[in-house]
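Example record used in the benchmark description.
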Amino acid sequence: MLGKSALLEAIAGKNRGLLATPTDQQAILAKIAALEDRNPTPQPLSAIDKLDGNWRLLYTTSRDLLRIDQVPLLKLGQIYQFIRAPEARIYNIAEVTGLPYLECLVSVAARFTPVNDRRVQVKFERSIIGLQRLVGYQSPDEFVQQIESGQKFTAVDFNIGDRDQQGWLDVTYLDDDLRIGRGNEGSVFVLTKS
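Model output (structure tokens):
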């Protein structure tokens, strides 16, 4: 699909948005909007087989995520989102690199509730922030399995209260291996199935 390859080409080399200039951002957002207009899955929340799975972030405008890279001595690594659609669960993991042996991770577990055919209300329930080696982090898949099993970690591991962090996300494009979403804070997310 021409629109899809144009978007992937535009975001290549932009380090998930960290290296995107304002001009790059405008061009990328235009390509995203053009692709959203040709969404092959107009009711993405009904397409559980496509939505469910392990996703890796390719591009975002989210200042909260991109801000991690601005902390001295830290570099934002890969960012993953695992969707367990039948259980209405989402797990976000951001790998953070830096000095040797001080690699970190920031993870959030959430529950989602469909609002309509493409919007979900997201309620964040648990946050885990810590050194990868202290939590025994080997891979995002294994880590999500540990969270799902209820394991507690040697990290800042806490439940998020009812009145804290909630939001919504629209799935505006979904095919077999690409997903685009728009969040309540105006952020755009482009992810690929991993």
